[in-house]
From TrEMBL:
<protein>
    <recommendedName>
        <fullName>B-glycosidase</fullName>
    </recommendedName>
</protein>
<dbReference type="InterPro" id="IPR017853">
    <property type="entry name" value="GH"/>
</dbReference>
Amino acid sequence: MSSPGIFPTFFLSGFECSTFEWKDRGRRDLSAELQHYTHADEDYRMLAELGIGVAREGIPWPLVDKGNGEYDFSSIDVFLDAQRRHCILPIWDLCHYGYPDGLDPWSPAFVTRFAAYARAAAAYVAERAHHGPLCFTPVNEPTFWGYMGGEWGWCAPFGKTAEDRRRWTTQLATADIAAVKAIRADHPDARMVHIDPLIWVVPPRDRPDLADEAHRESYEDAYIAWDIISGLKHPELGGSPEVIDILGFNNYSFGQMEYAGGGKPNQPLEPDDDRIRTLCSLIEEAWAKYRRPCIIAETSGLHGGRVNWLNDLMTEALSAVKRGVDLHGTCLFPAVDMTDWNTGEWLHMGLADVEPLPSGALMRKPYLPYVDALHRWQERLKRSTKLDEDPFDTPVDLDDVRDAAERIAATPDANWH
């Protein structure tokens, strides 16, 4: 007997693909800034050689949607070719923080235009896909985008209030639901991965009077989009458990925070802060609310901390598995390094770092300690460290994951490296 998972490999990865209109730089295409279009074959070959058979990839809505129902998807052909050549299953991000110029984000047209685009994008990749199932993330991180575009003013639509944030998050969730239904009208078996950060917010030590505000961010605001998409709230918008489908939990070190008063980002807790919760408890809490299959959709440490981060992350994830969480994979994100959105400095958080050459090319340089740590975890979970010729013939056996959790006696620990 076995318990087949959703994906062909337990470890996933992905590429930074934001297309936001940034506060002081206008429209950006992070795939171009990473030279991912140019290096697509190399980038996907690296994943295959690491035993990673699934990758989050972006379709840049603001760039392919020409208006009046016309689309030019040719920019993603290099991704499709590389995925086919190296046997990588994509999870397509259809909206990664960006929407077309001239589109009123607050209007009903935003929802209908996104749904039409999503249907067209699904048709395009379905005709060229080398393997199923078709997988999509309609709107990436709608709750986080609600903050950075609706309250902090970092990117379009440049809102500046909590009311703007909640309204924007609701609009994104509404568009997401419409996109899911548009795609499934043609592809009823398509899978959807709905992604947002796992967060924990505490009041400042000297401001216990802010406990209610911190609690609201942790238990209400963090779940606005998922509550709508799952149908727990505003069922008139069409959400349901089938629509939300697969949950994607993003986890970074700055996800546990001290409440800063609203209108600006909260302050990340220091690693030794006794208010930090175990990641296991956050995963279990979020999963229990919706009871849907889940993945860790993004995670990474920085610089030399990537190895310890992965070890801690996997111990917490397997501890959650022991508690009954239906975990289907972990996405080490990004595959290739990304820059700080504000400063442009390389963050050194990928499976491969980027080394700028005098010619302007961005050479990929795998971070070997991180790669070695990945291989150790693949072996513990009885996963291959390199893709074979047909990685899709057998999905991950989740019993192997559960067995590993018991074998290594995974226990949660709030003392993160």
